[in-house]
Design goal:
Blueprint: E1 5-8, H1 15-24, E2 29-33, H2 47-60, E3 66-68, H3 80-97, E4 104-107, H4 117-131, E5 139-143, H5 156-165, E6 172-177, H6 178-184, H7 192-202, E7 208-213, E8 215-216, E9 227-228, H8 237-245, E10 254-256, H9 262-274
Parallel strand pairs: 1-2, 1-10, 2-3, 3-4, 4-5, 5-6, 6-7, 7-10
Antiparallel strand pairs: 8-9
Length: 277
């Protein structure tokens, strides 16, 4: 069995470039922003590039990849115009994802900015109900969050509440971020089994489709969301190795979002491959 491991890459030069870059650092998957992470329009799709990438990925064993929505999208803003922008942007992203079917689209649920968790949950679900369609071939992932400020998604129950309100919930899953859940107060260092049992009870491990594997600059429960390089933070390498090797997780795609350049990602990928039992 091979570890499905990659990192965040720039999409500015297209899919084929990302595929080649992934292989150059020992990765067999990758993550990318669908557009500028701070917002803006998306670069036009190059159908020749997409076709070349699909052939390249099939020939080189690149598995399921993860597209990440820009950070600026907030489907539970108190401002209807901001919610509308998030809805239109995500729909555009999902239509573009149909050119590379069978992959994952991840987004931060958003911040309710004082409206309360219940209102935030309802608005996020309403956005998803407006943009999902039965025949789509992309799985949309809610990301576990650190719970800073008015973020929605810092507790597993909040993600479950969103999923329960989505009509086409068969197209929904979750991406677990190790830094985020640690900062949210889930003790993945001392009680990984307990955390996964809680996730399974509340959401269901069948919904877990990807892992963001990051160390954290902060102690458990800090609710701050500051990523650190593997082994240099408060989670530590040994705990992250246990995550990668856990029987319920080890076949999922693992994506690094540590503060690194390509050479740093290459080193972290090599370390995790070496420790993959």
């Amino acid at each position: 069995m091979m570890l499905h491991i990659g990192c965040h890459l720039s999409a500015s030069k297209g899919y084929l470039h990302m595929g080649r870059e992934a292989l150059s650092i020992g990765a067999n998957t990758f993550q990318f922003f669908t557009r500028n992470p701070r917002g803006g329009s998306a670069k036009a799709l190059d159908e020749k590039d997409v076709a070349a990438y699909l052939d390249f990925a099939a020939a080189n064993g690149i598995g399921t990849v993860l597209a990440h929505a820009p950070y600026t999208l907030n489907g539970c803003s108190a401002d209807p115009a901001i919610r509308d922008f998030a809805t239109r942007t995500m729909l555009d992203d999902l239509r573009r994802m149909e050119h590379t079917p069978g992959n994952l689209y991840n987004f931060h649920p958003g911040s309710h900015v004082g409206q309360g968790i219940d209102a935030g949950v309802e608005q996020i679900a309403a956005m998803l109900n407006a943009i999902l369609w039965p025949e789509m071939r992309t799985t949309v992932l809610l990301e576990t969050m650190a719970g800073k400020g008015s973020e929605v998604g810092g507790r597993f129950e909040e993600l479950r509440a969103i999923i329960d309100r989505v009509e086409l919930s068969n197209h929904m899953g979750v991406c677990l971020d190790t830094c985020h859940v640690h900062d949210a107060g889930y003790d993945i260092v001392g009680d990984l089994e307990g955390v996964l049992e809680a996730f399974d009870k509340v959401i269901g491990l069948n919904r877990l489709k990807a892992i963001h594997v990051n160390d954290s600059k902060n102690p458990v429960g800090a609710r701050k969301d500051r990523h650190e390089k593997l082994g240099e933070g408060c989670i530590g390498l040994e705990a992250l190795v246990r995550v990668v090797n856990h029987p319920a997780l080890r076949e999922l795609p693992f994506l690094l979002e540590t503060p690194n350049e390509l050479d740093g990602y290459a080193r972290e990928i090599a370390v995790l491959k070496e420790r993959y039992a």
